[in-house]
């Protein structure tokens, strides 16, 4: 309604509309426009339904007749009001991770620091190229692109392991053959390049959240940034690096690829779509794109259980074979750390007898019923067996552990694992978390014991150096640091005899020779002793200064040599005072 008389208020307008048959009138808003010279009033009438407003408009269109104060009628045009103009589209954006509303000027979320998602993030091509660092700044993570579509996490990890440094033996040339010149071209020469074996920590394959289909790229995490650099150096030196028979591209990632996941991890999907940070296990990370996720695969470090000793070839192999037969008993006692430890209580009795023989004592024979319990046998110090049994690798009492290993089949019956050699098996018993966990399971222990008895063997008790494990866990040194020497009290220095150096007069070479010829101190030289009695003083001079120059003479050479040898600060102060006194006397 337009051109309403300014003298009418909202109540009068509403009463007029109701008198004209406005059924279902719910609200009336009166507005005025003061921008023009003459004041203009208009109003909006809201009805309860569209049918009521349509019936009122069709009845009175195009204008209403309002009665003025002077009795005249005023014509008020009516019409449908247009829809409200749409609000200008805001550029504010909502974070896909924490759903926080951010201003348009922000590039990252204020709450979780996640990068601003692209408008077509769901439709954009995910190939890993956007995850590469433009400056190629070194990082622990490497992005690997152009992977095969059917790649799995284990095959991906095996392909990345080809970036380890490899020690290849050079082929031996037959005798008399001409020397073959080596190529000095750097292309394809990867000798000495690569990461340390076992440095690959985890690999991630990017997969779709709904179909689990691979996006044909992934990430490799190394234990240290230097290992990632070494792996990149080998990749750059390799003419064509392939994974799954397909050439791939490798580069460093930027810092916005993996972002913190701040929501509580409750469901299985939260655990599947996120992973723990290596530097902070309490922090969960996720891939920046919410439509895909990083499928985590932890790489098993086989170097912990790998055989480190090399097999000798040629004549050395025969000697090694003889030595293995000769020292089989000693090798049975080799611990995972490479040091010999006491294996069982009968061995303690044997070496106690040897100890008694070495000390010319009568060897003691210990019966089986006199063998103490394994848990009560001390490792160091005097034992009940009559001797002192000391192991070079154990400094504090250790505890017994029971070995459920079958050396014939080279396997651990407690964990159901097979190994290639005995040292690898011993490392498994010492370092494996699975083995430590199974030692607390009575059912597994009973089953392993029955399996050993089935092959005619018994569980063997061995010592376990728990003190050494604690030192390694807490990074404590094997030898305590020495305390710095305490500074002596200055008063004690004053009590020292000042003539300590003077008590031992310096005897020159010449005086020694004269003494051998019968000369005594204070006597004159010559056959009759009427010659020179006082010693010719040897003077020290400043290097590079003439003999007649003023200030070139330093003093007695013997005193200067003694002062330079002792390097005492008090001598230096006394010498400086003497110099100052001489200069003062020279000035008059």
UniProtKB/TrEMBL annotation:
<feature type="compositionally biased region" description="Basic and acidic residues">
    <location>
        <begin position="356"/>
        <end position="376"/>
    </location>
</feature>
<feature type="domain" description="RRM">
    <location>
        <begin position="1"/>
        <end position="81"/>
    </location>
</feature>
<keyword id="KW-0863">Zinc-finger</keyword>
<dbReference type="Pfam" id="PF01585">
    <property type="entry name" value="G-patch"/>
</dbReference>
<dbReference type="InterPro" id="IPR001876">
    <property type="entry name" value="Znf_RanBP2"/>
</dbReference>
<dbReference type="InterPro" id="IPR012677">
    <property type="entry name" value="Nucleotide-bd_a/b_plait_sf"/>
</dbReference>
<dbReference type="GO" id="GO:0005634">
    <property type="term" value="C:nucleus"/>
</dbReference>
<feature type="domain" description="RanBP2-type">
    <location>
        <begin position="89"/>
        <end position="118"/>
    </location>
</feature>
<dbReference type="InterPro" id="IPR036443">
    <property type="entry name" value="Znf_RanBP2_sf"/>
</dbReference>
<dbReference type="InterPro" id="IPR035979">
    <property type="entry name" value="RBD_domain_sf"/>
</dbReference>
<keyword id="KW-0694">RNA-binding</keyword>
<feature type="domain" description="G-patch">
    <location>
        <begin position="506"/>
        <end position="552"/>
    </location>
</feature>
<keyword id="KW-0862">Zinc</keyword>
<feature type="region of interest" description="Disordered">
    <location>
        <begin position="356"/>
        <end position="385"/>
    </location>
</feature>
<feature type="region of interest" description="Disordered">
    <location>
        <begin position="455"/>
        <end position="505"/>
    </location>
</feature>
<keyword id="KW-0677">Repeat</keyword>
<dbReference type="GO" id="GO:0008270">
    <property type="term" value="F:zinc ion binding"/>
</dbReference>
<feature type="domain" description="RRM">
    <location>
        <begin position="140"/>
        <end position="255"/>
    </location>
</feature>
<dbReference type="InterPro" id="IPR000467">
    <property type="entry name" value="G_patch_dom"/>
</dbReference>
<dbReference type="InterPro" id="IPR000504">
    <property type="entry name" value="RRM_dom"/>
</dbReference>
<dbReference type="GO" id="GO:0003723">
    <property type="term" value="F:RNA binding"/>
</dbReference>
<dbReference type="Pfam" id="PF00641">
    <property type="entry name" value="Zn_ribbon_RanBP"/>
</dbReference>
<feature type="region of interest" description="Disordered">
    <location>
        <begin position="308"/>
        <end position="334"/>
    </location>
</feature>
<protein>
    <recommendedName>
        <fullName>RNA-binding protein</fullName>
    </recommendedName>
</protein>
<dbReference type="GO" id="GO:0000398">
    <property type="term" value="P:mRNA splicing, via spliceosome"/>
</dbReference>
<feature type="compositionally biased region" description="Basic residues">
    <location>
        <begin position="471"/>
        <end position="490"/>
    </location>
</feature>
<keyword id="KW-0539">Nucleus</keyword>
<feature type="compositionally biased region" description="Basic and acidic residues">
    <location>
        <begin position="491"/>
        <end position="501"/>
    </location>
</feature>
<keyword id="KW-0479">Metal-binding</keyword>
């Amino acid at each position: 309604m337009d051109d309403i008389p300014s003298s009418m208020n909202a109540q009068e307008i509403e009463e007029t509309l109701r008198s004209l048959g406005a059924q279902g009138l719910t609200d009336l808003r009166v507005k005025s426009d003061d921008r023009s010279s003459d004041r203009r009033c208009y109003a909006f009438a809201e009805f309860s339904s569209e049918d009521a407003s349509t019936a009122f408009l069709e009845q009175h269109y195009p204008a209403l007749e309002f009665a003025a104060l002077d009795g005249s009628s005023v014509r008020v045009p009516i019409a449908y009001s247009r829809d409200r103009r749409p609000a200008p589209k805001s550029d504010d954006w909502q974070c896909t991770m924490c759903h926080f509303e951010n201003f348009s000027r922000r590039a990252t979320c204020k709450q979780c620091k996640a990068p601003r998602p692209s408008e077509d993030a769901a439709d954009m091509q995910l190939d890993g190229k956007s995850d590469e660092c433009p400056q190629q700044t070194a990082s622990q993570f490497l992005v690997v692109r152009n992977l095969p579509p059917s790649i799995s996490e284990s095959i991906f990890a095996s392909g990345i392991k080809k970036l380890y440094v490899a020690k290849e033996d050079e082929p031996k040339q037959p005798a008399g053959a001409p020397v073959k010149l080596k190529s000095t071209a750097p292309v394809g020469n990867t000798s000495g390049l690569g990461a340390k074996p076992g440095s690959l920590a985890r690999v991630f394959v990017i997969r779709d959240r709904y179909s689990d289909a691979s996006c044909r790229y992934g990430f490799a995490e190394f234990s240290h940034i230097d290992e990632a650099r070494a792996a990149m150096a080998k990749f750059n030196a390799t003419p064509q690096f392939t994974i799954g028979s397909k050439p791939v591209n490798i580069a460093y990632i930027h810092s916005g690829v993996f972002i913190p996941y701040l929501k509580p991890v409750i469901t299985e999907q939260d655990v599947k779509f996120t992973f723990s940070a290596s530097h902070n296990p309490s922090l969960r990370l996720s891939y920046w794109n919410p439509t895909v996720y990083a499928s985590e695969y932890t790489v098993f470090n086989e170097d912990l259980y790998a055989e480190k000793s090399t097999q000798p070839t040629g004549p050395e192999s025969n000697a090694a074979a003889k030595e293995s037969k000769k020292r089989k008993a000693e090798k049975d006692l080799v611990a995972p750390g490479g040091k010999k430890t006491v294996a069982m209580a009968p061995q303690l009795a044997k070496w106690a007898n040897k100890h008694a023989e070495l000390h010319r004592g009568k060897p003691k024979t210990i019966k089986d019923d006199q063998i103490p319990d394994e848990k009560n046998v001390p490792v160091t110090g005097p034992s009940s067996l009559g001797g002192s049994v000391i192991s070079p690798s154990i400094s504090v009492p250790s505890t017994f552990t029971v070995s459920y290993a079958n050396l014939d089949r080279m396997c651990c019956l407690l964990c159901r694992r097979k190994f290639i050699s005995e040292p690898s098996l011993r490392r498994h018993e010492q370092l494996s978390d699975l083995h430590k966990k199974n030692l607390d399971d009575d059912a597994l222990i009973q089953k392993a014991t029955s399996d050993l008895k089935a092959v005619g063997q018994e569980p063997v008790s061995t010592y376990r150096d728990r003190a050494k494990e604690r030192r390694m866990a807490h990074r404590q040194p094997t030898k305590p640091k020495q305390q710095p020497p305490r500074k002596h009290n200055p008063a004690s220095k004053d009590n020292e005899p000042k003539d300590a150096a003077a008590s031992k007069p310096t005897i020159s070479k010449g005086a020694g020779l004269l003494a051998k010829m019968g000369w005594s101190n204070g006597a004159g030289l010559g056959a009759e002793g009427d010659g020179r009695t006082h010693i010719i003083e040897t003077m020290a001079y400043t290097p590079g200064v003439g003999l007649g120059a003023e200030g070139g003479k330093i003093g007695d050479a013997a005193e200067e040599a003694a002062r330079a040898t002792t390097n005492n600060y008090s001598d230096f102060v006394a010498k400086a005072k003497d110099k100052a006194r001489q200069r003062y006397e020279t000035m008059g």
